[in-house]
Amino acid sequence: MSGRWPGAGLLACAACAAFGQGTPAGPTFEVASVKPAAPVTGLGPRRISSSDPAQVAYRNVGLRFLIMTAYQVQAYQIVEPEWLASERYDVAAKLPENASTAQVPLMLQALLAERFKLVLHHEQKITPGYALAAAKGGFKLKPVAQPGDEFNVSRGALIELKGRVTLGELANALAILLGSPVEDITRTEGTFDMDLEWSPDDREAVGSRFTAGGETPPAPAARPDAPPDAPSGPSIFAALEGLGLKLESRRAPLDILVIDHAEKAPVEN
């Protein structure tokens, strides 16, 4: 599977704040349909492209995915009931006239509060994670003159990240893949041609999420479900060292969304 990876959207608030009591104030969709998704085979969650920028549609997505999109966070920033990722929904909505796509997250927040009765609050947690830093041998990537508009991540027996990226974008992609915060501390500007390939560990296979009080993430180990003839590659740590980069374990404050209440069955359209 390959796709474009968004920024991690990590927040650093100084204090806890209550949120989600009632429908958030702000822009709302003109019309919206939310219904349980029909059983499907071989179809992952996806956003449906449309030639009309005023149309927004998601098919076969979990409520966790919608919360991540609405609040611009990653899975490891959500403390949730188990069903939040398993129940699937189809969402179709229309933006009001003169609204911009940049307002879609806020509109989704209002939709989740209205249809799923979603109530959540923010908490600050000191969480295990990583820092992306320059390795001892020195930085080995050379900047390119023309930045790319996207990069692809392909998942299989090996994970490959390929394209023109900044180190900040690389850190964000690694955070998604490793299920832990990754902060770029290289202080290196520019865009680089990246071709990074490594063997995934069990955390990357299942997609970790945040749990309060977790310890520093362990070094990746071989996937227990990998077939005997699967191609082998370096760990993510060794692959990064080949580019003059390294991941250092660290703990840092992170904004966590705690789901207080959500309904499995959305309010009828």
Can you offer a commentary on this structure?
By secondary structure, this protein is an alpha+beta fold. It folds into 2 domains: 17-123, no CATH class; 124-255, no CATH class. It contains 6 helices and 12 strands. The strands form 3 sheets. Strands 1, 5, 7, 10 and 12 form a 5-stranded mixed β-sheet that branches. Helix 1 (63-71) packs across helix 3 (104-115). The radius of gyration is 20 Å and the shape is globular. The protein starts with 16 loop residues before the first strand and ends in an 8-residue tail after the last strand. Residues 1-21 and 202-226 have low confidence and may be disordered.
Produce the secondary structure layout.
Layout: E1 17-19, E2 31-36, E3 46-47, E4 55-62, H1 63-71, E5 78-79, H2 83-86, E6 88-94, H3 104-115, E7 119-134, E8 151-155, E9 159-165, H4 167-178, E10 182-184, E11 192-198, H5 202-206, H6 236-241, E12 245-261
Parallel strand pairs: 5-12, 7-10
Antiparallel strand pairs: 1-7, 2-6, 3-4, 4-6, 7-12, 8-9, 9-11
Helix pairs in contact: 1-3
